[in-house]
Design goal:
70% of the residues lie in helices and 0% in strands. The protein has helices spanning 12-23, 31-46, 55-65, 73-80, 84-89, 93-96, 103-110, 112-118, 125-129, 131-141, 151-160, 164-176, 181-195, 198-211, 215-231, 240-249, 259-274, 278-294, 300-312, 316-338.
Length: 339
């Protein structure tokens, strides 16, 4: 889900709030309003380079499909083909819910231009047989009463609207109802990151680190830990992970040419740049520099982090070197997009 669409669309949250109100008081007279809101959501995503499916796109599609009006088939097609994300993630079933097996005949008669685009799409007999169960699932995901919403859905909703206190309450409630410890751990890690509850994320990562079996997994987790500590302005206690990471790298030679090596170096530079303790900042930067020299390549954000860390540690010549390399890499990237 894209939760950053407000950067372009100032009406995004209001549109979603309106659709939610309609969900809980669904009436026939709201059809044209829903059509309008759904069309606005599609247009917003078409103009958003970071599009993908949104809460409003799914809810608008569900509410509109509830009327089972075949006139809306082109809108569902348009929504599915906004970009590659929606093409793969938005349900084809919305187009077929109104008329099921008669959809193609209807489109050929009433929307000939659209028919040219879908005439080669042949849905299986099983696809049509599963439409009722598909719709039942959509209905369960969009209950008619707020009290019937599940905690995870409410967590996502409150997070989207910026009510972090309520979002935290619902994700904790969700976790208490789950028995799969792995599922809970992974979901809470991402949820607490989104909520800015970095100390809670660190607790989860420390458990994961104690249970990690491979050098690769340990390096990944240590990188995540350094990122979380950097988000907390790099308190000194995290420095202990640098020596552990260095020991793990000595037994895992492939790290120099794979993404996790860059991820670790990037996180180490970010930690060093924000650490208030001068001695720990310099020592952290020293580890990061030694690892950085071993990498086979350096991406732009890593170079920027390297400049910040070395400049914070008063390593001016190194900082200028990172700045120059970052500018060169930025120019290379910009040139690729101009081709």
């Amino acid at each position: 889900m894209n939760t950053e669409d407000l950067a372009i669309d100032l009406n995004a949250k209001q549109r979603y709030a309106t659709l939610l109100a309609i969900q809980y008081d669904f009436q026939e007279i709201d059809k044209e309003l829903i059509r309008y809101l759904f069309a606005q959501e599609i247009d917003s995503l078409i103009n958003d380079d970071t599009s993908g499916t949104t809460y409003s796109l799914w809810l608008g599609a569900y509410l509109l499909a509830s009327y089972r009006d075949p006139l809306d088939i082109p809108s569902f097609y348009k929504a599915k083909n906004i970009d590659m994300d929606t093409h793969g993630g938005f349900d084809t079933e919305f187009m077929y819910w109104a008329l099921k097996t008669e959809t193609h005949d209807y489109v050929r008669t009433h929307f000939p231009d659209l028919y040219k685009k879908i005439q080669d799409d042949t849905e299986s007999e099983e696809f049509y047989e599963c439409l009722d169960s598909w719709w039942a699932n959509r209905c369960s995901e969009h209950p008619a009463h707020p009290a019937d919403e599940n905690d995870y859905a409410l967590y996502e909703r409150h997070l989207y609207f910026g009510d972090l206190k309520q979002a935290r309450k619902h994700i904790d409630n969700w976790a208490r109802d789950r028995r799969d410890e792995r599922e809970v751990s992974v979901t809470l890690e991402y949820a607490y990151k989104a909520l800015g509850a970095y100390r809670e994320v660190i607790k989860i990562l420390e458990v994961n680190l104690s249970q990690a079996k491979t050098d690769r997994d340990k390096i990944i987790i240590i990188s995540d830990l350094l990122q979380m500590y950097a988000a907390l302005n790099s308190p000194p206690e995290a420095f202990a992970y640098f020596a552990q990471a260095d020991a793990e790298l000595s037994t895992f030679q492939n790290w120099k040419s794979v993404g996790l090596g860059k991820m670790l170096v990037h996180a180490a530079f970010e930690y060093a740049a924000l650490c208030d303790d001068d001695q720990i900042a310099v020592s952290s930067c020293g580890f990061a520099l030694s690892w950085c020299q071993e990498l086979t390549s350096h991406h732009y954000t890593l170079l920027v982090a390297g400049e910040k860390a070395t400049r914070r540690c008063q390593l001016i010549s190194l900082a200028e070197d990172f700045r120059h390399k970052a500018e060169t890499e930025r120019q290379r990237i910009d040139a690729l997009f101009r081709k």
